[in-house]
Design brief:
Length: about 500
């Protein structure tokens, strides 16, 4: 059926849909699709039906997780000790994509969440090439930061989240699609707004019970907006892909970026359609742009709101490292910015994006070594926020300490987890105790690029600007909660004063 017809004939459909809704409300509480019986206690049991729990979860997910911590049948929240056993299990047993499909409602939003080509190119081309392309990124950062923050030699209010979003899209775009197109408004629109539209549509879809979503999708404007966004993005991207292919086939010199690396490896992954490659670019932006922006915004808020007195120390570190590396922000130079790295990791520790990590669907019954059964069909996750604020692991866990990981790496403070290698406390390091970037075979492959980019931007900002909270604002800007996501408040402003070269 033509979806447009459904929209124009909405009135005629209201009666049958109303009937379906009532039917669903009566039937659904006795159905619990996707759940499987386990020996675990159930969070929200007191609410009565699974439908009531679902609705309560949409309203108060963070609270529900905090209250439950180790309960719930729909999602089994396991203690982190089990993760070592689970982390390397194949996707045929413990599956990350199916868990994501549910969150992002891919069946209706049309997202192709299984993208081995993209994952491969990130792992083997992007990360591998970072040392080689870093000077290009560094130049892009040097151009983009003043372009968006200005060069005002007086205190100026800036909405930093908004600016970072554009900066991250442009700087990432230099590597994703190349310097000719990374400032093109069509690229920026696609790389930023596709994610916004996708999350909006998925969130709206989840408000409808799963049985009526096939109909509900036609009545959700954000779902239409998403499909329109995808159409527009492809209209722009497909000809770019075609041109790139033509260059390659003609044996001419080709650009050195993600798009070209993807085209070069597309055959190996049986991706022959240009539209699919264009879509892969969109999925790349989805994985990369907002995640990096949110993380960088948190760090900025923490630096000025939680440890402004340490900013001169971090700036000194950056300046010293630069001087020792011929004023070039090489990979080695970024590695040596250890106080900055520690402040970033501390910021990520204190600003978890959600209460749990390691969201996976169990595909086949798993019997853990202590006899615990994870039944096929169940969804699992492990606590994240609670682990990162556990006083047994972190002294004064609710205090922002920019030196926390710096001191452990330098051997000045005892390592509470006794890792053999203290480099495990770098921003990019993942462990079961810190899943900021996930854990196991599906841990974020883009974290090396993200860390690189955030450091390049922050180092440039801290060298060239004095920054502070607006007069009269005390402490750090509080985060906001949307369903189960915790985000930095995107509406807030901070003060910038340019102190760099003319
Ligand atoms: C600071 C920024 C970022 C954060 C906090 C972040 C976080 C995460 C997390 C938590 C996961 C899930 C891991 C798991 O389930 O075990 C993930 C997966 C992923 N991330 Fe990131 N990410 C960031 C930046 C990026 C960037 C820049 C890229 C691409 C260049 C990227 C690409 C991916 C991909 C492709 C996956 C899926 C991996 C798989 O399925 O095997 N991420 N990320």
């Amino acid at each position: 059926m033509d979806p447009n017809m459904l929209f124009t004939d909405k009135m005629q459909l209201l009666v049958p849909i109303g009937a379906l809704l009532v039917g669903a409300m009566v039937i659904v509480p006795w159905l619990s699709p996707g759940s499987a019986s386990t020996e675990f206690p159930l969070a929200g049991e007191e609410l009565g039906t699974s439908e009531k729990r679902r609705k309560h979860f949409i309203r108060s997910a963070v609270q529900m997780h905090a209250d439950a911590y180790k309960k719930v049948r729909e999602v089994i929240v396991l203690p982190i000790s089990y993760v070592e056993e689970l982390r390397n299990m194949p996707d045929t047993i413990i599956n990350n994509v199916e868990a994501l499909n549910e969150t992002l409602q891919t069946h209706y939003t049309g997202l192709n969440s299984y993208n081995p080509l993209m994952n491969h190119v990130i792992r083997s081309d992007l990360t591998h090439n970072l040392p080689r392309i870093n000077h290009l990124l560094s130049k892009e950062v040097a151009q983009t930061v003043p372009e968006y923050l200005g060069k005002h030699r007086e205190w100026t209010r800036v909405n930093i989240n908004e600016k970072l979003l554009k900066m991250v899209a442009i700087i990432s775009g230099h590597v994703f699609i190349g310097p000719q197109l990374n400032r093109d408004e069509r690229y920026l629109d696609a790389s930023i707004n596709y994610t916004v539209d996708l999350f909006k549509a998925a969130g709206e879809l989840q408000k409808w019970h799963r049985l009526i979503r096939p109909i509900g999708k036609y009545f959700i404007p954000s779902v239409h907006q998403l499909h329109e966004q995808r159409r527009r993005a492809k209209e722009f991207l497909v000809p770019v892909v075609q041109k790139r292919r033509a260059l390659r086939e003609a044996g001419e010199e080709v650009p050195d970026d993600m798009l070209q690396w993807m085209i070069a490896k597309a055959d190996k992954f049986n991706v022959s359609d240009d539209g699919d490659i264009a879509e892969t670019q969109l999925t790349l932006s989805l994985a990369a742009i907002h995640t990096t922006t949110l993380t960088a915004t948190h760090v900025m808020y923490d630096l000025i709101g939680n440890c402004a007195e340490v900013i001169p120390e971090i700036r000194k570190e950056i300046a010293t490292v630069m001087a020792e590396n011929d004023n070039v922000m090489t990979t080695q130079a970024l590695y040596e910015m250890k106080l900055l790295d520690s402040a970033m990791r501390e910021s990520q520790r204190m600003n978890t994006t959600g209460p749990t990590r390691f969201q996976r669907r169990v595909k086949k019954d798993v019997r853990l070594s202590d006899g615990t059964l994870l039944p096929a069909g169940s969804n699992i996750s492990v606590p994240h926020t609670e682990t990162l604020s556990d006083a047994a692991i972190y002294s004064e866990p609710h205090k922002f300490n920019p030196y926390r990981f710096y001191d452990i790496r330098a051997g000045k403070v005892e390592d509470p987890l006794n890792y053999t290698n203290k480099e495990q406390y770098q921003f990019i390091s993942v462990s079961k105790e810190n899943m900021g970037f996930g854990y196991g075979r599906h841990a974020c492959p883009g974290r090396f690029f993200a860390a690189n980019e955030i450091k390049l931007m922050l180092a440039r900002i801290l060298l060239d600007y004095d920054i502070k909270m607006p007069d009269g604002v005390r402490g750090r800007y509080p985060n906001i909660v949307r369903v189960s996501a915790v985000l930095p408040d995107p509406t807030k402003e901070i003060m910038f004063n340019y102190v760099g070269e003319e």
